[in-house]
Amino acid sequence: xxxxxxxxxxxxxxxxxxxxxxxxxxxxxxxxxxxxxxxxxxxxxxxxxxxxxxxxxxxxxxxxxxxxxxxxxxxxxxxxxxxxxxxxxxxxxxxxxxxxxxxxxxxxxxxxxxxxxxxxxxxxxxxxxxxxxxxxxxxxxxxxxxxxxxxxxxxxxxxxxxxxxxxxxxxxxxxxxxxxxxxxxxxxxxxxxxxxxxxxxxxxxxxxxxxxxxxxxxxxxxxxxxxxxxxxxxxxxxxxxxxxxxxxxxxxxxxxxxxxxxxxxxxxxxxxxxxxxxxxxxxxxxxxxxxxxxxxxxxxxxxxxxxxxxxxxxxxxxxxxxxxxxxxxxxxxxxxxxxxxxxxxxxxxxxxxxxxxxxxxxxxxxxxxxxxxxxxxxx
Length: 379
Description:
It is a single chain. The protein is α/β, with parallel strands linked by helices. The chain folds into two domains: 5-135, NAD(P)-binding Rossmann-like Domain (Rossmann fold, 3-Layer(aba) Sandwich), CATH 3.40.50.720; 136-378, 2-Layer Sandwich (Dihydrodipicolinate Reductase, domain 2). It contains ten helices and 17 strands. The strands form three sheets. It has a nine-stranded mixed β-sheet. Strands 3-2-1-4-5-6 form a six-stranded parallel β-sheet, sandwiched between helices. Strands 9-10 form a two-stranded antiparallel ribbon. Strand 4, helix 4 (88-97) and strand 5 form a beta-alpha-beta unit. Helix 4 runs parallel beside helix 5 (112-125) and helix 8 (192-208) crosses helix 10. The N and C termini lie far apart (47 Å). The model has no long low-confidence stretch (mean pLDDT 97).
């Protein structure tokens, strides 16, 4: 292939998501022929010793403790934002003004107001941008989208999705700080709505189109938690659980549920879509399989079939192993980077963009508004 152009990465953050993204940049060139060669240039974290250890582990050339220095560095081409939600807007807007490409972890922001400001900033600057809703790029999920777009399901009647976890049932789990910032409303913006349901909503909007209106119910089961930073017992402002129903613009009905109080579920993410001609369903715990029911099958053999997504003619799989061998969670981030870099080589955005993620934020805000008011909320 032609000589690759180096693309210098500035990673802001060094937690779980920074690992997932760093791994993707390291592996993508081994499996995809790309015009860009990612270079892990600088990683930024607030703790210098910890950041140096991260850099040594993942192969970053340098470290920083101030994200502004990374954004201002003329050698950096792409800013990766993998920090708590409260920092997304300031970093992204500064990066856009500095002319950097940007990949931001989900949710885009704490609310739609911040998300819109970020969206307007990248669009004004004309910089390439992507939000990391990685589940779109699990091959079985991508295949589901393909089947819908090809009309295999026909008119859609129902869309159901849930995302269930159980890690905050213990009342001794604190809020705030490095490890539990997702329980602090000031840092996260919301609880399961912005963290987990955002994934469900993003995929639903992508597969099934815009949401028209919503009605929701939320609950915070533990009302007070100790702050991990101050040690003080403080009110909890995030939602531990959320259920909402909605109407899509295409006339279909949606039913969504998310909680961190489903004992026995660490990360159960599923969706099912029922159409006039066929239905499909998917489960993160069996992520390489798509369940498919085709009503046009002869009655004697009609039933749910399990499609093992591993063949080369299925999404992304031609880049990996021989048919029958499966891939995993981390590969969705590799696919995300590949799609971003392939689009960037053409001067185009991969999806979802900040604008797409802003629409997800609008739905999240409408859900929380409905739960607070007890009323239907239109978008």
